[in-house]
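3.2 Worked example (two chains)
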Amino acid sequence: QVTLVESGGGLVQAGGSLRLSCSVSGGSFSTYAVSWHRQFPEKERAGEEREFLGCISWSGGEKFYAEPARGRFAISRDNAKNTAYLEMNNLKPEDTAVYYCAADPNGEYVTPRRFDWWGQGTQVSVST
């Protein structure tokens, strides 16, 4: 069983930075693609899907960022630690959301898709 646990969320002022971690246990982390997503409370109530932010390949050599993440967010991974990261800079109040990591065994592909395994999420709140 593959388990993902996010950490590093919290309250930060606008313009600040946070680094989220995604620790993965079970399976073969070094073969998985890992992605990051977020869910806004109002959109969750409306039944909308989580917003895809980006994905990193098994080696870290390929990355894809969706428009909301380009320029301010960066995804990385450390296969020795079974952990992936989402570095977020110049945060804005509109970045307030629950952030999720997800993974699947299609390790070479970084495009948006339905991922097999998900974490429980970590809250990020950005104040003005």
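3.2.1 Second chain
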Amino acid sequence: QVQLVESGGGLVQAGGSLRLSCAASGRAFTGYAMGWFRQAPGKEREFVAAISRSGGTTYYANSVKGRFTISRDNAKNTVYLQMNSLKPEDTAVYYCAARPDISSIRAGARMGEYDYWGQGTQVTVSS
């Protein structure tokens, strides 16, 4: 079992920045690739970013490429999502998730690849 707890969400103006954190506990964090997803009201959950277990490979949704950066600190069992140049359409609940790192980084865009999910943190971007 892996337990995931997100933090760092909040209210920010358009153009601002936030950094989300996801703290993992339980089984060896370094054995898992990680991902961030988000779900806006009335919409399906969508992929945001993924990172390999080493942190050496990342993958982003086109909608956030160049604005968001995913990273991890394996010594702290934590994955981060730095969000810059935020837009109102980034408003959503953001979830982190963990999956065994046995497939390509692009597979990290598929929700079904993930075994463990956090409870989510709300990000609201005002215009």
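3.3 Remarks
The chain is about 0% helix and 50% strand.
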